[in-house]
Amino acid sequence: MPGYETHIRTLRLGGHDYRIRSLVDLQQFADPDHHAQRLGISSAQWSLFGHVWPAGRLLAEAMATHDIAGKRILELGCGLGLASLVLRHRGADIVASDYHPLAETFLAYNSALNGLPAVPYRTLRWGTPNDSLGRFDLVIGSDILYERDHAQRLSALMHEHAHPVAEVMFTDPGRGNSAPFTRALAAQGYAVSEIRCRMDERDVAPFRGRLLHYSRAGAAVATVTAGATL
Description:
There is one protein chain. 26% of the residues lie in helices and 28% in strands. It is an alpha/beta fold and 230 residues long. It has a single domain, classed as Vaccinia Virus protein VP39 (Rossmann fold, 3-Layer(aba) Sandwich). Strands 5-4-3-6-7-9-8 form a 7-stranded mixed beta sheet, sandwiched between helices. It has a two-stranded antiparallel ribbon with strand order 1-2. α5 (103-113) links the parallel β4 and β5. α6 (150-161) runs parallel beside α7 (178-187). The longest helix has 12 residues, at 150-161.
């Protein structure tokens, strides 16, 4: 036994059914070799990677229709990698990244569970230089601005790993930390557009969720239905 419990559920994403292995609840925890602890992942944070969150579903839905032709794409903080799986299903050039010790394992399992080729994966800690990662045309992430210092770390990552003509798309459940990130990307030449989105059935207008789209040097603008319920 791995020390944690999982289950498999079926999610409808972009008009296609995906089978997703996830942790059964937020109480799951297993770190026998203290790997997560050494990375700064506490027992309270450990299980967060292994769940289907509304922001993750929102990003996956956006990636089901977004223009991906000819683009090299990076998903940050992929967790279970819903958006990466949707993009892999579409034949995209996608690299998923996270730093949780089990993110790669769960992503590989879910790729195989859906009959997809393995999604290329890189261990990536924001703020740590990674010269081998290269540059991308589109960088995506869901609910990754959850700490105040993430805006600075992620804007620095965009500076190092986004092409001169590039897009950045983040989903944010309304945590209030997106403004400094937007200012930092504006200083790098990005224009921003924002679509308010319902995070769940209890959400009422004005919706708390946001799909943030940043584009530089004429990159295409995403097309997503405002206020869509996921």
